[in-house]
Amino acid sequence: MLYPRLFKALLAAAALSVAIAGLSAGLPAPVLKELRAAGIPDSSAAAVVQEVGAAAPSLAFRAPATMNPASVMKLVTTYAGLELLGPAYRWKTDAYLDGDDLVLRGHGDPKLTYEGFWLLLRALRARGLREIKGDVVLDRSFFADQPHALIDDEPFRPYNVAPDALLVNFKALRFGFVPEGPAVRVFAEPALPGLEIVNSLKTVDGNCPEGRAFRDAIQATFEAQPPRASFTGSYPAACGERDLNVALHTPEDYVGAMIRLLWTEMGGSWNGKARDGAVSPGARLLYSQDSEPLGEIVRDINKFSNNVMARQLYLTIAAELGGAPAQPEAAAFAIKQLLKRKNIRAPELVIENGSGLSRGERMSAASLAALLQAAWASPVMPEFIASLPVVAADGTMRRRLRTEGVAASAHIKTGLLNDARAIAGYVLDRRGHRHVVVMIVNHPRAPEAQAALDALLAWVYEGASRR
Question: In sequence order, what DSSP letters do the residues of 265-298 get, joined into one string?
């Protein structure tokens, strides 16, 4: 027999799409006020508020409407990953000796960082490998090759890094900027061999710009072959020390340069090259390194809205349930089957890469709310909810609503694209009642909808949805 709370929550998730059909309550006045101030009509928004375990929502506005949820789609991928793979799931990266060649076979580890890759190489040294006599062969066959569409015209931004079964350090470089009098010191971490840095930056007075404006001010330009970064503009002294993350290299060039850097630092020798290939039947397994467990990985995905990690998880679901090499269609099928088993009707769901970094992904506020209800009743609930940003405390919500009562009382995933902004998660109101909250805005001015989304969270916290 199901426990009463579990049965109640599952029943609520199954009944939500039916219950909202006849509910047409408008958006709360504080939310409408902020939408109008941003020049966004309420017809561009959708929202659901429902107490956890309740049979019907207390607020449902355009809940069945098909919307672009932006990065809130990561909730679908991470919940499905936890349910289908389990919180203890770990990715493996295997190292083989195949004659004179060292073969590295990846299985999609989303967080094989600089430090993790260093530990892998250290483990090979500890097992007696001192010289790599041949090439380093990269077996990336766990994921299928597939077209990679950029979300914008910035191919060197880390969020546009393509999924890779052997993704090392997100294929990223961190350029650091340190003003030193009239000049600016520029350095890269990791300082990969073969990378050229052109630096003619001069410090100037004035405020420090943010985002694209900062890159424009320093006139940052990048080239992939050979890897080259140029900074030829002005650097406002008010910026102090800043950094900029960039992905320049091809996967094989990046891994090759990383091995050449770290292996040499460890006292090893290698004069070969890095190339794509596969583990042969005669290769000998030398070492296998485990990733962090999925229960920890989902925290990075959701709290910091890490797109490439979400896409790695999405394709891992495909490989584990549909077989390698992973195809995104297999992940979409597995996720839709999971939702069906959870009695969540989501006929409008379009999921392409699982990260929300897409112009084509679609879901309704009603379906997202049903998923959050099902997650609350799931055995993986603790790991799932702990992965969401805490309002005014951490992740993508750390700077929002700091002076409001809802601060530290809500776990909320955020989403943002040029024409979409969203929130979804859980709010514990001032009376101790927990609510599922979802709001999505699709409009050319959607990035300006933050105040409206925050107003809904504050409204729910104050208990207005129970009056």
Answer: HTT-EE-S-EEE----TT-EEEEEEE---HHHHH
Encoding tokens for residue 60?
């449902």
Tokens 């299985």 -> residue: 107
pLDDT band at 212 (very low <50, low <70, confident <90, very high): confident
Tokens of 455: 């107003």
Which CATH number fits the domain that encloses residue 146? Answer: 3.50.80.20
- CA pair distance 165, 107, nearest whole angstrom: 5
- With CA atoms as reference, report the closest residue to 92 among 112, 113, 114: 112
Q: Which of the listed residues 229, 246, 263 is the one where a domain comes to its end?
A: 246
| Terminal alpha carbon distance of the chain | 34
State whether 256 and 199 are in the same domain: no
Least confident of 68-72, 153-157, 335-339: 153-157
Asked if 11 and 67 sit in the same domain, the reply is yes
Count how many domains the chain has. Answer: 3
Question: Band of the pLDDT at 17, cuts 50, 70, 90?
Answer: very low
Give the per-residue pLDDT at 122: 97
Residue with tokens 């890469």: 353
Distance (Å, whole) CA 112 – CA 119: 10
| CATH number of the domain residue 339 falls in | 3.40.710.10
**Dist. CA 86–CA 83, nearest whole Å:** 6
Quote the CA–CA distance of 377 and 369 in Å, as a whole number. 13
Residue 2 has what pLDDT?
43
In which domain, by residue range, is 182 found? 173-246
On whether the pTM is more than 0.90, the answer is yes
- pLDDT tens by residue, 288-328: 999 999 999 999 999 999 999 999 999 999 999 999 999 99
Residues 195 and 299 in one domain: no
- Give the per-residue pLDDT at 25: 62
CB neighbourhood size of 212 (10 A):
9
Are 191 and 230 within one domain? yes
| Bond into 226 cis (ω within 30) | yes
67 and 185 co-located in one domain:
no
What distance in Å separates the CA atoms of residue 426 and residue 385, rounded to the nearest whole number? Answer: 8
